[in-house]
């Protein structure tokens, strides 16, 4: 299964979601390929310093992450596209109609609630920790759902 996380700049939320899900998938032996991109990303930009720091606290290295802007190929190859906010989802649906049926907010897919992951950009380390925890909790539910799909339990 190929999952794409999308946020605004691909420097905070979506890269944190990507590396957290990669770690969970590895630990659980799930066959998942994970990527991330941003709707308004500057290609090649590093992850924000606070995102790097909170991932380091999880034992995950985000130093080598480089932002990339969303493009058609990424969207086409993804089986599931998870956005960090309703506005990201709406932007993708308005520009790329073929994503209908495979794009959701992360919380919508995990919990059935179309809610946003708060953007920590410009905030302090506590804002990044809060965003990380929101993402981690949603990913726990997500991996339970995906595991069922991958093993045919659903």
Structural account:
The chain is an alpha/beta fold and 154 residues long. The chain has a single domain (2-151), classed as Response regulator (Rossmann fold, 3-Layer(aba) Sandwich). The chain is 47% helix and 12% strand. It contains 6 helices and 4 strands, in the order βαβααβαβαα. A 4-stranded parallel sheet has the order 2-1-3-4, sandwiched between helices. Helix 1 (13-28) links the parallel strand 1 and strand 2 (33-38). Helix 1 packs across helix 6 and helix 2 packs across helix 6 (125-151).
User: What name is given to the CATH topology?
Assistant: Rossmann fold
Query: What would the average pLDDT be, to the nearest integer?
Result: 95
Shape: globular
Terminal Cα separation, in Å? 15 Å
The secondary-structure element order is EHEHHEHEHH
Oligomeric state: single chain
Low-confidence stretches: none
Category from helices, strands and their pairing = alpha/beta
CATH superfamily: Response regulator
Helix count?
6
Architecture, CATH level 2?
3-Layer(aba) Sandwich
Number of strands: 4
Strand order of the largest sheet: 2-1-3-4
- Fraction of residues in H or I helices: 40-55%
Return Rg in Å: 14 Å
Q: Which CATH first-tier class would you pick?
A: Alpha Beta
Give the count of structural domains: 1
Beta-strand portion reads: 5-15%
Sheet having the most strands: 4 strands, parallel
Family: Belongs to the low molecular weight phosphotyrosine protein phosphatase family.
Domain Phosphotyrosine protein phosphatase I: 1-145
Protein name: Protein-tyrosine phosphatase
Keywords: Hydrolase, Protein phosphatase
């Amino acid at each position: 299964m190929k999952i794409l996380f999308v946020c605004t700049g691909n420097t905070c939320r979506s890269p944190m979601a990507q590396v957290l899900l990669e770690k969970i998938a590895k630990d659980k032996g799930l066959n998942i390929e994970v990527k991330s991109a941003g709707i308004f990303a500057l290609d090649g930009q590093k992850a924000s310093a606070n995102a790097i720091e909170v991932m380091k606290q999880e034992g995950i290295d985000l130093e080598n992450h480089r932002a990339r802007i969303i493009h058609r190929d990424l969207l086409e190859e993804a089986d599931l596209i998870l956005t960090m906010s309703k506005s990201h989802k709406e932007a993708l649906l308005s520009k790329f109609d073929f994503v209908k049926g495979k794009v959701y907010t992360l919380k919508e897919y995990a919990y059935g609630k179309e809610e946003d992951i708060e953007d920590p950009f410009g905030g302090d380390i506590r804002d990044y920790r809060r965003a990380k925890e929101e993402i981690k909790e949603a990913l726990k539910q997500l991996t339970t759902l995906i595991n069922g799909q991958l093993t045919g339990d659903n």
